[in-house]
Write a structure and sequence with these properties.
Blueprint (H helix, E strand, L loop, with lengths): L3 H15 L9 H7 L2 H5 L7 E6 L32 H7 L7 H6 L4 H8 L5 H15 L4 E5 L8 H6 L2 H9 L4 E2 L9 H10 L10 E2 L10 E6 L2 E8 L4 H4 L8 E2 L4 H13 L4 E6 L3 H10 L5 E4 L10 E3 L2 E5 L6 E10 L2 E11 L9 H11 L3 H4 L2 E5 L12 H13 L4 E4 L13 E3 H8 L6 E7 H16 L13 E3 L1 E5 L9 E6 L4 E2 L5 E7 L11 H11 L2 E2 L7 E3 L2
Parallel strand pairs: 1-2, 2-3, 6-8, 8-9, 9-11, 14-23, 15-22, 19-24
Antiparallel strand pairs: 1-12, 4-7, 5-6, 10-11, 12-13, 14-16, 15-18, 17-22, 19-20, 20-21
Amino acid sequence: MFSRRDFLTASVALAAIFGPGMHGRWSQAAAQQALTEDDLLAAEDFGNVTLLHVTDIHAQMKPLYFREPSVNLGVGEVEGLPPHVTGADFLKMFNLTPGSPEAYALTSVDYVSLAKAYGKMGGLDRVATIVKRVRAERGEDKTLFLDGGDTWQGSYTANETAGQDMVDVMHALGTDAMTAHWEFTYGTDRVNEIVEQLRFPLLAGNIFDDEWMEPAFKAYEIFERGGVKVAVLGQAFPYTPIANPRWMIPNWSFGIREEEVVKNIAAAKEEGAEVIVLLSHNGFDVDRKLASRVEGIDVLLSGHTHDALPEPVMIGKTMLIASGSNGKFVSRVDLNVADGAVKGYRYRLIPVFSDVIAPDPETAALIDRLRAPYEDELQRELGRTDSLLYRRGNFNGTFDDLICQALLAERDAEIALSPGFRWGTSLLPGQAITVEDVHNACSMTYPEAYRSTMSGQLVKDILEDVADNLFNPDPYYQQGGDMVRVGGMGYRIDPAKEIGSRITEMTLLATGEAIDPARDYVVAGWASVNEGTEGPPIWDVVEAHLQKNPNVHVEENQSVKVAG
């Protein structure tokens, strides 16, 4: 966890200059004066192996705003445990000061005012600065830079280049290994094409060829760092063919496959591995359960659920790390390894404050060059918002509500369904809404906005199924993501109940009438996993809506009631 010196220098310095009443109202210049790159990156020389981890970048190369969730519910044994703690409770749990840089980076508390004070976060040119500095100070022979996946998808340029822009940048960063999830939505042929050109391995020991049940990807790679053999095992998202279109990857079989993790740990140790690192895209609660059942994992670098925690969660002897998303954070783990075992560690979750950390010139130039053919379209203004637009959270976010409004209006529907993806950047009140912003919320390879009829019972069944994916008390039955966003309809949900009884009080907002299980309703949605889905791409639907409604105001959604 960050020390007071590391992360609270700004709070102390500015309070001394301006007084404590300045919290949430600091100027960006003042924040810059107090926080320095050295405050964020300086570290003691400890141990002989350093791991750097990023995950869930979702093709975001430039600095951005990304609001952390205000609601992230845990059920069963993980209720009230991190990462299922948000807002003021999160600050209290980790002894963080309201209004501080860490409060802005890690929570939704006072988000707009703190965002204006501290500015954007992320930017892969800033990540490059961090990686290069650590390698220079520690030595390349002691450092591993690992990518947890969801890297090639999530932006306009990634969609246009089928992920090539992100491959080029990750090559420039000197990535040592990666695993994957949304990468597979480019389809088998494109994934194989990219894997052939990668300068580092894509590791996924839990994916097999469906016909012969042989490994489809390399399961692990052994690196020598600091005189130590470090085995990095890859675990791709186990539910890819369920959460995403199966028809895009018809010949690969996925799963958690605990037995393969055990087998690969044993094989790596047989080859002399002294440190076992699991580079995972399972999701945090799945990884927590896996770590409790599989011995021998020293460091588990978790991805998929976009959680950011300032401290490791220890599961027995396994250090479970959550590094956030969108390039907002880089995790640094320094290990002291001796006599074939980890004897100690130091951990830092490094916040990538883009106004504090200088961009690496070479990486910045590469990013600008990759974006140049699309820059005019990226910056084309579609409207302006006077509301905070965000997505992340278990239930409807305001950006999702905007998408649902577009679906209802442009597709002439009574009910709108929008997927609960955790990717998608935020916009502050007063900002322009550009083509890039819309694509950051919906760029994907199956974007068709369908229009169909569904019975009230089918709509309930869909909500119940998604709720079970999120709130099943057994993490191995959770697929990550958040609740499907709903427009034109309200409902009540009790996450603690069993499937089939979580969703009640479904109401058509236009009339106030209860949803009739036997009646058919016109429903519009997007991102269907069914092959052959027809309709305009969702970004065209949102753009058409903004052309008619360029001044955006979205109230916080009150139509979803959460029991307890």
